[in-house]
Amino acid sequence: MRFAKYHALGNDYLVIEPGEYRGEPTRAQVRLICHRNFGVGSDGILFGPLPSQKAAFAVRIFNPDGSEAEKSGNGLRIFARYLWDKKLIGAEEVPIETAGGVVRAVVLKHGLAVRVEMGRVSFWSDAIPVAGPRREVLNEKITVGGREFTYCAATIGNPHCVLPMEQISPELARQFGPLLETHPNFPNRTNVQFMKVLDRGNIQIEIWERGAGYTLASGSSSCAAAAVAHRLGLCDGAVTVHMPGGELNIEIGPEYDIRMTGPVTKVCEGVIASEMWGASLIS
Question: Which of 45, 67, 135, 195 has its CA 20 to 30 A from that of 210?
């Protein structure tokens, strides 16, 4: 089975074409492929290109725990770059269907960067979803691990919990991220961003990604956090998001339509050896 590996600010994905696979990978097989000791190792799998009635291409996004993600900003930049590398697209903007809606991507700087029109952010509880009566989920209280946080929730096709804070750290994300991801407030689990506003044009985030864990960078998390900062009046419409893996540029429209621009790096191409499947599947 052939694959291509790319990373976007340290958030790495494998692209596997359906023709390389009989049917689709099972949850156990995804976990094995993504495992960094027993498999190739990645933050997820981009399964495509697939046919679509809504766009030029479709892609399915698998998390390393075997679950399926609705949308991934970094994954979509990588997938667009892969299509460009395969000469399936050129310099034109291309629509791509995901489980979280259709986005539009364009490859820039001879493949080194990609811009994606990610769609519209919503803060409404029924769209995210968040438990309880229908409302915009802004500056609510939540308690996990004996600590109370103030959080906002948002969706850009996948769910996010954004916690504005004065100080953030990787340790904070690793300790409280998994507790927030699985909190009963979030019926479909959630991505988590611990956010520090630096100034009107810059924020810093630490990320706990649903189904993946602590992550160096996340495109959809950057979009959600920037939108929350703007919605709270803390940032303007152009925001640079600083993460351990690097920076993304986010532009927020008047209706919270989001445009994301950031780098993509090709790592390698390879073939998964058949004997790997003889290893014990990761539980």
Answer: 135
